[in-house]
Queue: 2 jobs
Job 1
Amino acid sequence: MVDDGGFDVAPPAGGTVRDLLRAAPGGPVDLGAIGPRSTPGLPDRLVTGPDRKGWARRQVGLVGAGLARQQEMLFAGAKADPDAGRRVLLVLQAMDCGGKDGTIKRVVGALNPLGVRIRAFGPPTAEELRHHFLWRIRRALPPPGYLGVFNRSHYEDILVPRVQARAPEQVWRPRYAEIEDFERELTAAGVAVVKIFLHISNAEQARRLLARLDDPTRHWKYHPSDVDARARWDDYQTAYAELLGGCGTDAAPWYVVPADRKWYRDWAVAHLLRETFDTLALGYPPADFDIRRERERLVATGQAAKVNGS
Amino acid sequence: MVDDGGFDVAPPAGGTVRDLLRAAPGGPVDLGAIGPRSTPGLPDRLVTGPDRKGWARRQVGLVGAGLARQQEMLFAGAKADPDAGRRVLLVLQAMDCGGKDGTIKRVVGALNPLGVRIRAFGPPTAEELRHHFLWRIRRALPPPGYLGVFNRSHYEDILVPRVQARAPEQVWRPRYAEIEDFERELTAAGVAVVKIFLHISNAEQARRLLARLDDPTRHWKYHPSDVDARARWDDYQTAYAELLGGCGTDAAPWYVVPADRKWYRDWAVAHLLRETFDTLALGYPPADFDIRRERERLVATGQAAKVNGS
């Protein structure tokens, strides 16, 4: 058994997870220097412990319970002051098999579903293609008070045209600036944006694709185009490296989460969410009614004698 | 400790929960004859056991894990055959403090959030009022492959006008037939509709409202109009009794879930969902590609030597 401090959330070691995993802006991120099996923020004794997976699962549960409380405060605050527009947007990007679905299942699944809006973005539909690439994104933004989760996002509109050569550079290159403007607009409107790239290795992708092929209950997750995309692995890594270094702002930074180890990935994403909610310094809004008077009115409706004795 | 059969889902006693809780159609349901603290489907030894809450929580977790698997099959099936339109819609109705939010948090929270779309309906907005009352409902329907959850619903458009006398009977009465047509249309389009009324007692509502007033972290859930609505308790019960008996069809029946005991409520709702998914007889779709060929293509992309040794 790992000594995990009982039922408390163990703090990350060496700084916040945000600080440890933040992609440095300004130029291409050196993804080759970030080990997909590395575990920043975790002491060695936890990483090598025999119960590391169980430990991480419990920690995600504990962080999730705390986040559920913060979600509630976010929701209550938005009810009291909708114009503030406060909400959180989690953007998940990854190569195929990078673990977006698993992260949502495990981490977002530990939160309160009442306050979550999840949206997956596939290849644009015919209708979506008739609009600006941000049209479908804007329509999917979470309302104030909610945590929105984007399973893929507007970043596909740079990555895919670029790597698949579906559009010339003069189409996708200007999207960098458009996205930066869009995300500045979001943060000004009260949206805390957390952008995460789940970083897996080429070998891990091969393992996971093969596991899908070998399991009839997972064939539905496989598509032959996955192998075609895999053949362009290096091109995608180059495109991601530039994107992660070029589309992060102070208000909407990118985080690179090593993701070959699923248990670490979930732990890190849970903490990134927690630390983001912490920056909002949330609290419950004060009552906008006279508590004593309401108590009297309630008691007057009867059955109240039983109330105190229950 | 209650003997709960280890890690298995304990089957309901005395029939399916659907059979036990189904509201008989044809005339007003006698809500007075259904005890809000009753526990249909549970053997006495479980109801009186000291660990009944822990037992129910574990059972909901087990049922939820099975449902997550069925959700996945529903999703995979819809991906393979979107035209079938198969999806599930859970409609939750209750008096204030009836436990809609808690049910979603506990039961829906045990499922996979990837496949869930939750929508809460408040008083209609100015824009919504300009449309037919089903307009906002249609826009909120889950896509094929998803479980949709309605936190309140189109039924508010009968209940509120009627009880609050906001509209004459010739406005809300025809909505019975419109809703029946609408729900027939849904079921024809592949939607399995599960409508649940969470049935609490007057005294329990008083206790829960008072608990909100006495807890500053729950003031945001309280509104003075809750007491006004409570003063019309009998009118609401009468309206619900007629609605539960009058708006259920074979395809879209109503279930009355005794809800004073939260642990029973969650157990019953979890089983109602499970039994509904069971009726769909879901399975994974077959691969629409050549598995052997894809395996060869994948191995040819390299790194595959590591695959089998991992």
Job 2
Amino acid sequence: MLSPKFSELVRALRCLPSVGAKTAQRMALQLIERDRQGAELIVSTLTAALSDIGRCERCQALSETPVCPICADEQRDHAQLCIVESLTDWLAIEQSGAFQGYYFLLSGRLSPLDGIGPREIGVDRLMVRLDDPAIEEVILATSATIEGEATASYLQSMMAGSRYRVSRLAQGVPMGGELEYLDGHTLALALRSRRPITDD
Amino acid sequence: MLSPKFSELVRALRCLPSVGAKTAQRMALQLIERDRQGAELIVSTLTAALSDIGRCERCQALSETPVCPICADEQRDHAQLCIVESLTDWLAIEQSGAFQGYYFLLSGRLSPLDGIGPREIGVDRLMVRLDDPAIEEVILATSATIEGEATASYLQSMMAGSRYRVSRLAQGVPMGGELEYLDGHTLALALRSRRPITDD
């Protein structure tokens, strides 16, 4: 009914996250009917991104250069390496501004049932990165889910007896969290990991 | 922090309807990190759509050919012309399957305060289309909003005294509409336009 090339575009747009048939059609109409300039910008930026963005050979984050700007930044703290499981987690930590060391990005988390083992998430590349003699502390910043915890404990056992300290993100009550609405696990954990109040 | 080409892609994706900064970032990550094949498909289909999709010279709908498949279909009812204000309205009527005539697509509705007059919505092209001697009825299918009504009544006065009948979509209680939740205007209208019950 509508032109076949329009339908093909609608079908292609459905690969975007949480875009269904109706939304894809609205997007395609917007691009072809009302905002051809925007559509051309998407084509050119997406083409450039696809051809020029690869992975940083040190941390595996997206980068246009063989080594990403963060890994290339000599001002950061060489003693700390933070291991994250996704680029969004990497971004979240970097945007918090609380970490000055370097990162290593796993390609996801261990999930043996889905056939995702250490090799699939890039543990071999991590081993190479860990050879860096400057590293004094490795921070396991995988998420607090079952798979994230499994990944962290696998890495922890793998690094047992190594010369650097291994740490894990603290768990507890989030900022602004009302105890009343917090799940029991988190509350129990926060209680067990309670800190003595000091005067500093 | 992330590569500049990635940020440019995120900015470009924000031209899509109801896509903000967070969603655009998620889309860009999906395209570059996880689904490069999908990204390449978007580039190729969007490029093809931009270069090959124009407007039908008879009805102004999107078309890859000078005359769209509907206008080129000689089997449809030449006596009826349905005037719609957007491609989505056009699609909605066509998908209902209740109309077998031809369409004419206005580029929006009259909105004098925004400087959108008859020429901007393509009334001159409509005049050319209305020269077709086969037309017996013109159906004004603009939306039931203030601007839609204004557009319909402008067109109606423009066509006053012409050889064809001019009609308007019926207004009233929608299918499945509970009277209790219907607005007063619609209810009053439905009451005023009440139909005698016949036995056919």
